[in-house]
Amino acid sequence: MSKTDRIGVFVETTRIYGRKVSEGIADYARERRGGWTFAAGGDLLRTDIAALRGKLDGVLARIPDARTARALAALRVPVVDFYCWKDWPGVAGVDGDHAAVGRMAAAWFLARRFRNFAFCGYPGAPFSDLRRAAFVRTVEEAGLSCAVYESDNYRGNYLRRMALGPEDYGAPRDDVELGLSYYNSATC
Asked: Angle 169-170-172 (CA atoms, 0-180°, nearest 5)?
């Protein structure tokens, strides 16, 4: 019999994004035909991560801050962050190609012969800054100009605080819909 890996999953589930990420993790585990046991998760992200030492073989997480990143890295198991607000020491990151998103958005409008462009994002948010730069560059390469809306209300860590600060990392209310209640050590 093959080894079962114990994977800690720390994903906020109060919004659709976190629920869909959880669903994707569960789907991947099912496609592997087993071998993963989901443990930890939820409330431990806010309490005592050190208590997980020796109990996990890896961690999948949306890491909201340096304290959490340090605590997860100290577990001495592979940790993958898919929030990627920053590059954390000892933590791998998986993120989208935000420059490609910006280019594709501008190309879509250009293909439809739009002539006036503006970008509205979150200054200081890494994903938004990358999208803005690529969007503006693509529009300018087409010989047009692009206004950029920058509000002081959305500078700095506003989006990070807004997105992850109030999130609940506990068990999802609709874990039946996900088909996997990994917060209760389910196995796939």
From this structure: 105
Q: 15: how many CB neighbours lie within 10 A of its CB?
A: 13
Q: Which residue has the tokens 């990143």?
A: 69
Residue 96 to residue 182: CA distance in whole angstroms: 25
* β-strand pairing of 79-81 with 92-93: parallel
Where helices occur in the chain by DSSP H, the ranges are 16-31, 66-73, 98-111, 126-141, 158-164, 175-178
CA dist 82 to 22, 29, 128, Å? 12, 17, 15
Q: What are the beta bridge partners of residue 149? A: 120
Angstrom distance (rounded) from CA 188 to CA 168: 24
Q: Is 80 exposed, middle or buried (0-12, 13-18, 19+ CB in 10 A)?
A: middle
Q: Quick check: 140 pLDDT over 90?
A: yes
Token code pair at residue 16:
């659709």
How far from 5 is each of 38, 127, 167, CA to CA, in Å?
Answer: 8, 31, 27
Q: Is 154 helix (H, G, I), strand (E, B) or coil?
A: helix
Q: Which residue has the higher pLDDT, 151 or 43?
A: 151
Pairwise CA distance, residues 61 & 168, whole Å: 13
Whole-model pTM: value is 0.71
pLDDT at 103 over 80: yes
